Amino acid sequence: MGEIVKLWIKRAKGGPMDAVAEAKLVAGRGIVGNANQGGRRQVTIIDERAWADAVRDVGVEVDPSARRANILVRGLDLENSGGKILRLGSIVVRLFAETRPCELMDEMQPGLRAALKPHWRAGAYGEILEDGILRVGDRAEWV
């Protein structure tokens, strides 16, 4: 079992990542106030340990908000999690696939994109099946 470590809302595509203590997630839509709504990529999740491994490979401390994901979890390995169901607090998410690191990662820190490629270090994305309020400190577990 894991836990929610950080939450971010991206107000606009390419815009800043706002750290929040809680967020409302709506089934079939996404995070209220987030740029990504609907479709299969309603929420993006990264694992704290995988992020630390990538940062270690880069050799420079990089804040995890640079990944531009919505949720940072501790204690859950996201590698090969496509098709799995995840409970985050009271919210249920179906993960579809790996979130592939894009060229923005190297704009944040040279070498970060390559460091995120192995073992799904860049995280996973999915759709919200059951909505609710998600808070930093909530439990995260596979269903």
Number of strands: 11
Strand-and-helix sequence, N→C? EEEEEHEEEHHEEE
Major β-sheet strand ordering: 1-6-5-9-8-7-11
Number of helices: 3
Kindly name the structural category: mainly beta
CATH class: Mainly Beta
Query: Taking Cα atoms only, what radius of gyration do you get, to the nearest Å?
Result: 14 Å
Q: How many domains? A: 1
Mind telling me the CATH superfamily name? PK beta-barrel domain-like
Q: If classified by CATH, what would the architecture be?
A: Beta Barrel
State the main characteristics.
143 residues; mainly beta; three-stranded antiparallel β-sheet; M1 Pyruvate Kinase, Domain 3
Structure description:
There is one protein chain. With 143 residues, the protein is mostly beta strands. It has one domain: Beta Barrel (M1 Pyruvate Kinase, Domain 3), CATH 2.40.33. Helix content is 15%, strand content 39%. The strands form 2 sheets. Strands 1-6-5-9-8-7-11 form a 7-stranded mixed β-barrel. A 3-stranded antiparallel beta sheet has the order 4-3-10, with no helix packed on it. Strand 7 and strand 8 form a beta hairpin. The chain is globular, with a radius of gyration of 14 Å. The termini are close together. The relative contact order is 0.28. The mean pLDDT is 96.
